[in-house]
Amino acid sequence: MPLELHHIGEELTVKLLESLHETGRLRHVSCADCKKTLAAIIKSTVGHVVAVTPQARPHVTLSDGTSPRIDGMHKIDAVVVGDECALPFEAKLGTTALAWSRVSGAIGAGCELRIEGSGRALDGKMWCLLARTGAAKGATVCLAHPRGVIVGAQWVLVARRVVQRKWRRLDSVFKHSHVIVFEDLVRALRSPSDDFDRIVAMTVAAPESGYRQSWGLH
Length: 218
Hints:
By secondary structure, the chain is α/β, with parallel strands linked by helices. It is built from 8 helices and 11 strands. The strands form 3 sheets. Strands 1, 4, 5, 9, 10 and 11 form a 6-stranded mixed beta sheet that branches. A 3-stranded mixed beta sheet has the order 3-7-6, with no helix packed on it.
C-alpha cells in the first residue's frame, strides 16, 4: 500500500508545528475562519511555548466533580504546551470522509456519559470533548503529562483545503474553534518542497523525495 498523507497526518502536524515554531514562521499561517495568525492564537492561549507534544492523553473532570474514564477519544493528536495552559490540535487530513454533514452530526451527538459495571465512561469524538459539548459541558480538561497542564477552551482543527472550502464557519457551531489548512502549514516552511519532503522522510524513514507533489500540497 502506498504511503498516504492521512496515514501519518498526526505525526506530520506535530513536526510541522515544531519546525514553524523553531523558525519563527507560525506568523505566516492564519485561521481560515477568523484570519488570526497561528502565532497570535498560540500566544494568546499558552503564552510562552514550552513544547509541542504528540498524542497527549487528557484527564477530564466533569462539572459535578467526577472524573470518568475516557472511551473513543483516547489521545489528542498534538498539543502546544505552555507553562500552565495547552492549545490542542486535531488533525483530520483525509479528503473524502470529513464532509460537513459528519462534522455537524458529531456536533449534534456531543459527548455521552455511559454507566458501566466498572464505572462511568465518557464517549464521543475528541473534538466534541475539546468543544465541551454534550456530557462534557463545563468540564475541566487537563493533560496527564505534563501533569496538571490545563487544556484551554481554544482548540484547532487541521484539515485539507479541499475539505475546508466546503464547510461553513466551524466557529459558528463549535465555540472557541479555529481551522488551519494543512497546506498552509506546508507553504509556511522556509523551503516548502525540500523541507516538507525531509520532514516526511524523517517521520517514516523513507526516501526523501516527491511527497509534497504526489499528495497535491500546493
